[in-house]
Design a protein that fits this description.
Low-confidence stretches: none
Structural class: alpha+beta
Radius of gyration: 17 Å
Mean pLDDT: 96
Distance between the termini: 42 Å
Oligomer: single chain
Strand content: 25-35%
Length: 225
């Protein structure tokens, strides 16, 4: 559907048609750098010519790299059917492994990413190879800072639960704190995220490895601020 192949900027959002290819996104100046950093880690160049954000979202894999970053970015999707339309946050659209709230007669029209700058934005991925590998663990982390005070903090984890893991209430516990305070409390902070992370053993990794690496990723991000 050519009507769903586009990228445009509005006052509030970067809007991406659901069938726009990853390769097109990599070459657009409108796409946030952290999403580009994520996309370059997805599959191989040939697949990125045809793969899409709409497919990554609707597939609802807990290890979906783009979904991890989109959730950290507070992205939403516009969903349409023949006689209705609605908007839903991606974190609410995906409800479990390969499960979404999409009805049989609905499609994703577009993805909307808030048009907001971030002082720090990082995507980490650990896979079995350096390229063309499904994530064992992934993390997207975002932070804004003003006068040494955290004004925004968002984290999303991939491949450590039945869906991409994020919890805005835990993230907001860091808002209003100084960078030094957060760095000095990094062990306490990781303990709060620890209870959210519920990985499993599978052919790619063990739950113990995933758990440890996910917590190390949080520490690495905080120490980079």
């Amino acid at each position: 559907l050519s009507e769903l192949n586009y990228i445009k900027e509005t006052q509030d959002d970067i809007e991406i048609g659901s069938v726009t290819s990853y390769e097109t996104l990599l070459n657009s100046s409108l796409v946030p750098k952290v999403l580009k950093d994520t996309i370059i880690e997805i599959a191989a160049p040939g697949i990125r010519q045809v793969g899409t954000l709409g497919g990554n979202i609707a597939n609802a894999s807990p290890a979906a790299d783009a979904v991890c970053t989109l959730i950290a970015l507070d992205a939403k999707v516009d969903i349409i059917s023949f006689n209705s339309s609605r908007t839903e946050k991606i974190c609410d659209l995906i409800i479990g492994v390969k499960k979404t709230t999409l009805k049989p007669n609905e499609i994703i029209r577009c993805i909307k990413i808030p048009n907001v700058e971030h002082d720090y934005a990082t995507f980490y991925k650990v896979g079995g190879r350096k390229a063309d590998a499904i994530s064992k663990v992934s993390l997207c982390a975002l932070c804004n800072i003003k006068d040494n005070i955290i004004t925004k903090f968002r984290i999303a984890f991939g491949a450590v639960g039945p869906k991409v893991v994020s919890d805005i209430f835990t993230d907001e516990l860091l808002v209003g704190r100084t960078i030094d305070d957060v760095k000095n409390s990094v062990d306490d902070i990781t303990e709060k995220y620890k209870i959210l992370i519920t990985p499993i053993d599978d052919q790619r990794s063990t739950k113990e490895y995933r758990h440890k690496v996910a917590l190390n990723m949080i520490k690495a991000f905080i120490e980079s601020l």
